[in-house]
Write a structure and sequence with these properties.
With 170 residues, this protein is mostly helical. It has one domain. The protein is built from two helices and no strands. Helix 1 runs antiparallel to helix 2.
């Protein structure tokens, strides 16, 4: 179908159709921009802000956790040093008490030894005094016997021998 004017109907270009199509396209773009792109952009921006807030909250929580960890480690170190100090103090106190108990026991042993030595000395003195009293009584008794008898050398010798024998028996 070729017309005489030399145009083809199915290939014809109508400028008004092209302008109408471009106009419709512009209207469609404006409508889509108004009702679709702006709300979608707004939703995307809100999501971006929420994600940014979540990241900042996570960073804040992480930094707080790190601070808590540091505080915990510091308290743990302080507790360890305090425990070491308490153990050292208790050990020193135990050593001091041990030395005090040992010195007290030594002093008590020395006091008991001195008392025993004094008791021994007193017993020796008492025994010596008793022996002296016994010897004095024998000498007095011997002197009485000598005075009662006549003094002759034989009687005198036998009296001394008897006194010596009686000393040996006691």
């Amino acid at each position: 179908m070729v017309t005489m004017a030399g145009t083809l109907d199915f290939l014809s270009v109508n400028v008004w159709h092209i302008l109408m199509a471009i106009g419709n396209l512009l209207i469609l773009v404006l409508i889509l921009k108004k009702f679709l792109f702006k709300p979608v952009q707004k939703i995307l921006k809100q999501r971006e802000e929420e994600i940014g807030k979540a990241y900042s909250d996570a960073d804040k929580a992480l930094s707080e956790a790190e601070a808590e960890k540091e505080l915990y480690l510091k308290k743990l170190d302080d507790a360890k040093s305090e425990a070491d100090s308490m153990i050292k103090t208790a050990s020193e106190r135990a050593k001091a008490e041990s030395a005090e108990i040992i010195s007290g026991a030594k002093a008590e042993a020395e006091r008991r030894r001195r008392n025993a030595d004094e008791d021994i000395e007193l017993a020796k003195k008492k025994a010596a005094d008793e022996m002296r009293d016994s010897i004095s009584e024998m000498v007095i008794s011997l002197a009485e016997q000598v005075v009662e008898k006549e003094i002759d050398p034989k009687a005198h010798a036998s009296l001394i021998d008897g006194a010596i024998e009686s000393l040996g028996e006691e």
